[in-house]
């Protein structure tokens, strides 16, 4: 029945204008303004239907107060329609109401000065909105309730009101705007329903009580009606105002005062696209609903990067079902399927309208293409509840460029789930912009592996809160480069507690300042944000992966000698590319303590040994400080030999080379220790040590030390005196001498002696008359032997206790103030003055001189020690061993502790005392003894004489 009426009305709306056009074409055009001709025209046109009746048009024509309305009806060519209606209600604005429209500046279809066209779509729609297809009797709204009525306005494209579009997101649905929908063509924007109108009783006490027409669903506003007038085909209800048809849903959103945030989030242009669709029911979240979100959720939604989530929210608040969800039509419950696939239950709960348990704060806001309700909560099903992922929080934190970079590198999967456990080190857009404006700072190009690796270095597996972090900690990242053999690159944590200001006597203690947290060189600039199982730290700059070991060492002034040595050995290219390397880099003081050993290693002819020494400090695996275990553990080095590293009982790290019965094969008397650990590099990690550990493959002899000290003159003189066996570590060539030495050392028959050479520089020999000595080989031999100190292996206790004031562990013999040492000269002639003595005269400054010298030869009997060098221990061959026992004392007797060289600035001359120096003290003692005896004798004689004289004293008044 409803469809039959609708089809009949549709035919009538199409045919009636054509009839009017034909009639008007046969007579002059009507003159504006009310006239008898117009009233007659209405009567004549209606006579064909009801010859003896009074139609609605007749009522308009008969009352001058409706002349302007009749004029508009004629302009819209609706006279045949009004005459054809039966049992309708026409809300007729009076002339005063229409005149008020003329005074408005806004465009309105009731303005009489509007240019006349042949369609007048807006005017027709507005007039039809004043018509009900049934008679509203005087008992309407007798229950004092706001009632919803259906008008004869059926919004549609046919009415010239535009083709509805799709509520989809953005331009991706523009193709739908050009696609004809037969249902929309046939049934319009309200699924074939007429536009709704709310009518409420007036609050006045007038009888009969006037109606308020066009009120809101709550009864606000509206136009006051007059006394209804009856016609044959309906009722005419005067109005003191004009009823405007509801506008499009997007415009209703724009005009509603409680939807400011809704408008801001979606934008006017987007709302026009999304809401320009047919038969919509919108449950619009109010500002209060958005305010219920936390700060970061609101930031995210307003960021411009939340299209997907905004679409998700909108689709669940929007129904495009052909059953429009008017609350006024709800009896018990109405289920509305949303565009998200879920359903919303519109119910009446104790007179309160609700949807899914949430109250409607405003409802039945009519629109051209549907209806809108206002809710104070976001309507989302539990399974699709709006939760922020780390990526969304990053956007809310203004790290949108960082998010875009993650997406371009296909790393966003690590930040798009709250269930994933991840520590994210992010950079805000403004910080990234400032960082890029710095010197020589650019991000790698998008799509490159370099960009992917740079971003992987900002993602740390696991949720590491500030309480979990400690100063010096290392955290693995997602970056697993080839340079580390696909082991994770680490980040160094720095934690420092800001000092609180002290409280005065008159003030309260101030709270403790927060902890300063940093990752590598970047500081944390905001409080961390926890998102599910992940946590976000905003940092002050982009993190850069560590550079290679050479670049790392160059930036550390403590390692300048190490860097110079690497370049001298031409190892820089190899070390830059060697993957998964742990480098034990000695500092400058460690190299300085090598003395002449370092001078020798830097010689061009010693490059192979320098390479071996440096390579011995490179471990072929990644070992961070916490990875070292207690005890002594062997690690293979780049040199090929093993180095021993472990922790002692106190947890301190000790580094040394191979040992034999507790003694270090390279002759070191101390272990290396860490000065700084866990300095990250591109290829591994670098630890700074305080000692250079010589590999077992590098042997340092006295000859090499003299070459390092550029003491070629001393080396040549040793050759001339057949003492080269001292320099190269060979046993003495004279078997008799060897037998004599063994006899003297009968407690250790297999002991190998070592020698320390007091080596004058070449410049020192320029002050010596070498011509004389070269002509007197015995004198030259005596001179050389004075500069050679035999040294026996010290006890283990003595080598474990380095002295203060000199580089421990690298001296060829123990330096002690006033210490006296025998030389080969004193061993040949014990009665000679061939021993040397040491004297410390300043910090790390020592003098050596001939013991017993009286100084008549001036400076020639002492010299300053300029440098030093220790030779590698020499072990006895298997032929020398008798029992093969490995007792420590036997092993000590089978090895020479190497000796070494003390470089001095002057040549020491043998001291030969004069006769006076030999016997002068005896003469002085004898003379002093004689003088003493003489004095004693004189004193004794004087005393005796005095006593004798006293025996003959004559007493006074006595006789003789």
Automatic annotation (TrEMBL):
The lineage of its organism: Eukaryota, Fungi, Dikarya, Basidiomycota, Pucciniomycotina. Residues 157-180 are annotated as: Disordered. This is FAS1 domain-containing protein. InterPro entries: Adhesion/Biosynth-related (IPR050904), FAS1_dom_sf (IPR036378), FAS1_domain (IPR000782). The chain crosses the membrane at residues 919-941. Residues 171-180 have a biased composition (Basic and acidic residues). Pfam families: Fasciclin (PF02469). GO terms for biological process: macroautophagy. It comes from the Eukaryota. One of its GO terms (cellular component) is fungal-type vacuole membrane. Residues 1-23 form the signal peptide. The gene is Mo01175. Residues 53-132, 246-379, 386-543, 546-693, 698-791 form the FAS1 domain. Keywords: Membrane, Signal, Transmembrane, Transmembrane helix.
